[in-house]
Amino acid sequence: MQASVRLSRSGQLAELFPDALTRNGVVLSIGGAEQSHVEVDDPSFLLHDYIRRMRSIITAGFGDECPSNALHLGAGALTLPRWLQHWQPGLAQTVVDYEPELVQFVLQHLPMHPKPESVVDDAAAALIEQLAGRAYDLVVVDLFNSDQAPGHLTTAEFFENCLARVSPRGLLVVNFGDDAGMRFARRLTSTMVSVLGPGALLAAPDDVLGGGSEGNLVLAAAARGFSQGQQNMIWAAGPHPDSLLSGDELIAWTGS
């Protein structure tokens, strides 16, 4: 598979092409930077560590309960929505992306059945306009690759609006990346914890948390909190080497 489209708002080129790492993998690249991997014949296969951490948090967070709907801020190649659909068939999903062409382009070449609801908007605006009054059992924020993230998407107000969309039994999961040193990640985590409280969890590879390597981190908050048993399940599910921070350890890591 080889396909591309010019994204009208950023002007960047979105491309789909085979991933040499797996037999039936496809990569989405935007502006020359790889964004997502989709295993075409197996949505249960998640290649990258960060999305496997998200899976660990989601499955432990819900346990025997089944989420009824999910909101995704940031589309990519819809890797996580595909896994969620495989895990919980019938789950209603809404995807928000700023680029008008992206979701349609991805679904044209990598279909999903049923398709998620697609909202074309800035994530912050969508939360208080098109999605106002809605509640979701799962809210996923996947917008930050580095400190180049738009400033209005890194504020306490933005995360307050994300939390407002989470149902009383729901879960908020945020994926974000940073360069070695983790200066942006620490600032962003401090902002999120100021909204979500010290019961939030941060999961990442040990070398990333230590600041010695670039990489992705996953922060999560549950409306009802995470029990110690759930935290143990999340850590045990890995991938490893991995650390899970919460409470005083999490606050200390941010340097607040």
UniProtKB/TrEMBL annotation:
Work out whether the entry's keyword set contains Transmembrane: no
Any single GO BP term:
polyamine biosynthetic process
Keywords associated with the record: Polyamine biosynthesis
Tell me which domain of life the UniProt entry assigns to the organism this sequence originates from.
Bacteria
List, alphabetically, the InterPro entries matched.
SAM-dependent_MTases_sf
| Keyword Ubl conjugation included in the entry's annotation | no
Name the UniProt record assigns to this protein: Fused MFS/spermidine synthase
Q: Which organism is it from?
A: Nesterenkonia sedimenti
